[in-house]
Amino acid sequence: MTVTQSEAVANGAIATRARPAAERTCAAPSVHPRPAGRDRYTISEVAEHTGLSAHTLRWYERIGLMPHVDRTHTGQRRFTNRDLDWLSLVTKLRLTGMPVADMVRYAELVRVGESTFSERERLLTAHREDVRRRIAELQSTLDILDYKIDIYADARRASERF
Amino acid sequence: MTVTQSEAVANGAIATRARPAAERTCAAPSVHPRPAGRDRYTISEVAEHTGLSAHTLRWYERIGLMPHVDRTHTGQRRFTNRDLDWLSLVTKLRLTGMPVADMVRYAELVRVGESTFSERERLLTAHREDVRRRIAELQSTLDILDYKIDIYADARRASERF
DNA sequence: CGCTTGCTTGGAGTGCACTCCAACTCTCTA
DNA sequence: TAGAGAGTTGGAGTGCACTCCAAGCAAGCG
After folding, report:
1. DSSP secondary structure code for residue B74 in this structure
2. Number of cross-chain residue pairs from A and B with Cβ atoms under 8 Å apart
3. Looking at the domain that runs over B38-98, which CATH code has it been given?
4. Which end of chain A is more exposed for a tag (fewer CB within 10 A), N or C?
5. What CATH number has the domain spanning A4-13+24-160?
6. Which member of A23, A118, A128 has the closest CB to residue B142?
7. β strands within A32-125, DSSP E
8. Residue ranges of domains in chain A
């Protein structure tokens, strides 16, 4: 369920090389385009948009992973485009296995303001190293999988020849 | 703790491109070289060797993730080189996020014998797709991280100039 | 012989990241 | 104004993958 977004991401197949800088954006292009001119979304709209459940969105807020979310006079949440941008970063980081605790830490730093730039840089740099490690790891497993699958495929082809 | 092995893997930095086939081996070169001529290891030796805890090794056996492990006359486990090979595959698959349940399924198929080749092929192929998806995902997050880190680094350099 | 070290077991406990529940309020449409 | 449907809360429950515990056995050493 949480993985919905990743499938869209993967459509570009194995594109492992870094894309040119011009193509990089902060808020990743999302599956459900944002209705223009709106800036107040209900929790279920955001759930639909991000692929996260309403439960999870409330939980994220409870644990301090969201900046302050607006409320109507009766206490219902109204998310803004800024919130969607933030969630898009958060889901990205989540998909790459950053622990929720680390993301909460990052969110706290963002709340504090510019004085935390260098610590934020450190945090993200550490995570980037982690992601690079994981890519290398996955790549090496891919080689093993190729090898094993080849063996099974060869066996199948051999048995099909008769 | 379980990640010990991955760090060795990552030493080759970002090497995301597929390596030549000649370099691919089934049993990955391990951190602790196997003492030659031995073929009976205690659980703690195997723990040391694989980076898994003795607890985890016992648990793997309990849930059916290990082929039958030899015992001494007093009931202590003695692992063989074959077991180490198997564990090296298992840890690889684990590090790439294959669920334990799927690995148990695979282990069952291996136990049954050659008649399950095609299903094993299917299982591994599905996982390979998964791994490819994940690599693409990680890569796209890497781009976002680069972008964000650049911003923080620029801010830092700007403030350092005075 | 006593002590330490290492192994055995089933079952209970842990940490993470949700996920759901009960009981309630609010909004909207007929 | 009634009723459906969507929202609210704190707290409990779930699933995964370990991780630990208690109680006990076995081998080696001084």
Report:
1. T
2. 165
3. 1.10.1660.10
4. C
5. 1.10.1660.10
6. A128
7. 70-71, 77-78
8. 4-13+24-160
